[in-house]
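Can anyone check this?
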Amino acid sequence: MLLDEDRLKETANAGNPEKNIASIDILHDPEETELRPYEMIYAKYRDELTEELYWRPKNLNHPFRESVRLKLTQILIESPPPDKTNPIKLRQGILKGRITAFFPLHNIPRLNEIKEKWLSPSVLPWQQPFFEIKEYFGEKIGLYFKFMAHYNLWLTGPALIGIPLQIYIVAINNFSSPVQIAFAVFIVIWAVIMLEFWKRKEKMTAIEWGMIGFEDEEVNRPEFKGETKKSLINGQFVMYFPPKQRMVLIAQSSAVIATLILVVIGAVTSIYIIKRALAEPLGSNAQTVASILNSVQISVFNLIYSFVADKLTERENHRTDTEYEDSMISKLFLFQFVNSYASFFYIAFVAPYTPASDDNNDDWEGDCGAPNCMVPLAINLAIIFGTRLTVGNITELALPYILFLRKYAQETAFAQGELLRPEREFMLTNYNIMKSSLNDYAEIAINFGFIALFVTALPIAAFAGFISSLLEVKADAWKLMLIYQRPIPRGAEDIGMWQQIFTIVASVACITNAALSVFTMDVLDKYSPWFRMWFFILFQWICFSIQTIAMALVPDEPQESIIQRARRDFLTEKVILQIPDEVLGGDALLGEDDGEGGEGGEGKEGTKEKPDIKFPIHEYTSTKDGTNYTLTPDIPVPPPAPKKKKLFKKND
């Protein structure tokens, strides 16, 4: 819970002599960090401390904000009761049909306030009321919108560059222009720098929202099954599931996924066999037909696979939500990567070297259906990416609304009289935070892949992605506030495994953009194959080097976050946990007796006994040069003062 800045400073300055805690006075140095020493400090709630130490909104006389109360309510319901009987497992009960629904009611006045700030057309993604979103919907949802804001803001660069570049390409009627190689290098650098700066923003957000260490305190999923046995670490009874058994289940899931990926490759191959058959009657339009078929195939396969991946991951019986999500993420992205990009890899890197059918135009390159494979690659990107953006946004808005209307009609068919407010909100569509989050991030990751991997063929696709992301943010906000039941707030320290997924895509972009520049474009066709191969190797390793340098130059965590995290740990230790200062004897600080006895020598009058005094130890790390110091004050700690009025009271 967030500590009150003024009260925390006052308490720290006062110290606690009874607990052997010296007065604490942390200076504010704007050159080192803009954050004040006592702001954004979070700590666990403790009954023995005064409630005034914890921050509270102006309209409350206690520190338990609405989002905190909702989280606590769910924990209390799902916790084992005192008589050790089985706890209520809400999610499990809903899945098995034993519980109809479980959700908090919307706070209408607060919802209307957020709506005015959030749904206004003039509010851009990076201007969203993130604190209000976090407080109302929880940190996990708030972090998603903050990532979308960061992504949208950084996407303005490729979008603004892509428009004039596309106009230039169309004007000269050359989809294999040298300027596209420069654009490819720009995209590779842009992708990694965008992600590096997100890491920094993510760390600062965790500090601001008190989510540092959140994943370390996760509890078991209600769906987790196992046998009760004593822990080998602390001897307490825990739920245990054999790791070997889980590995067997994961191996079985991997076999199913590999089979489905082979099915995808077979489906894409079939589409391009059909395309070859249509080459004679349709000419270059055969690629358009193939792209439309491929777009339909991608949507259908993604829908089927989402259901399969969910069942496989549930079967693996993961202990925590984070473990479950990481497993689900790897399944979703691996399949969707192949399903979404298989045709692009074929057109760009296989079709140019595939023998054309006898009916093909002699001027066409390989099986591309055009003089240059960059043209069909651009067509494929325009149709598949464009269809995905258009259909995806329409479906995201229409499907929840249709489900709401259907549910409302079913539930009110035999209703008499006016519905109560809980009944009306029950008609809203249920919002599954975990699955909705997975689907939202998966969609952004695939869209990011289209831009990072293949936007060189169609630079204006970056602008299309930017517009789509703007609409995505508004659509998601509209659904959360008007169509969905209010979710129980959930915490999140970071975007999890999606960070690694985005980084992998940025790394693969080095290879695809190098290969497009060398093997798909005709800019280097006049050079020998050996020269092109070495240029390809040099191109991608230059890109890898630039990405590595960017990662090294941009620290993952800003200095403000590092300092504030250290302050939080220190202040929590002294003010909340009340751990006494470490002490050293005076001999250790003044030096051991060397036997000389001072000025008068050993045993002489000039000998002075070294006092048995103790000094509190404070460690300090310079933020300017990174040097670690162990500091002790010049004045020894006085003996404990007589007992006075306590500094910490339960109901002060």
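Reply from J.R.: I decoded it. Strands lie at 227-230, 237-240, 583-585, 614-616, 618-621, 628-631.
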